[in-house]
Amino acid sequence: DAGVIQSPRHEVTEMGQEVTLRCKPISGHDYLFWYRQTMMRGLELLIYFNNNVPIDDSGMPEDRFSAKMPNASFSTLKIQPSEPRDSAVYFCASTLGGGVGYTFGSGTRLTVV
Amino acid sequence: QKEVEQDPGPLSVPEGAIVSLNCTYSNSAFQYFMWYRQYSRKGPELLMYTYSSGNKEDGRFTAQVDKSSKYISLFIRDSQPSDSATYLCATSNQAGTALIFGKGTTLSVSS
Predict the structure, then answer these.
(1) How far apart (Å, rounded) are the C-alpha atoms in residues B37 and A6?
(2) B95 and A56 in contact by Cβ < 8 A?
(3) Given CB atoms, is A102 within the 8 Å cutoff of chain B?
(4) Mind listing the pLDDT tens digit for each residue in A80-90?
(5) In chain B, at which end, N or C, are there fewer CB atoms within 10 A of the end residue's CB?
(6) B1 pLDDT exceeds 70?
(7) pLDDT above 70 (res B33)
(8) B76: distance to nearest CA of chain A, Å?
(9) What is the number of other CB atoms lying within 10 angstroms of the CB of residue B32?
(10) d(Cα B110, Cα B16) in Å, to the nearest integer?
(11) For A66-89, b where at least 16 C-beta lie within 10 A, e where not — what string?
């Protein structure tokens, strides 16, 4: 298995633009997590899914953020409109059965100018 | 108070030193305790995992949990330059809920 695959690796966008981050979890994993990492706040949970259903989205900062998981092999995190304070590394992770051994992707480094 | 506190460092040690990394947590319901290692510009990877209190050893690494003081530790013996990374502690109260991470401690081991 190629692991958790995220795209793009890097994204630079202007304030106000829409940004879509993509994630392909490990095949067979039924939990998918979106985290955001910054120097100031560390790794913060944004949202997680179980069997494609959102379970906890209390970490989503505001209505500008939305996440979907249309099927077991694909998830998106969308920011519209983007702001400079959204600049961070966004990680996707997956696991089987809610186990604590998450497999993380390599992350998307987002810069909003 | 954040649920998991971790000193960000940085921590610099010479090769061969014993390293101690620590976290504290606030929620006594936490039962699962993990250490993840993150190399620069990579995603975190699971290093060690313990359930409830006690010690767990894996090669040069020992994870320790003291639930009475809500303290989590990771010890690295005979540290190597390849151990240079950011180490994140993480915890949760049950399987199927999301992990809560500390901010991470950056370790540099010089040869």
Answers:
(1) 19
(2) no
(3) yes
(4) 999 999 999 99
(5) N
(6) no
(7) yes
(8) 20
(9) 19
(10) 9
(11) ebebeebbebebebeebeeebbbb
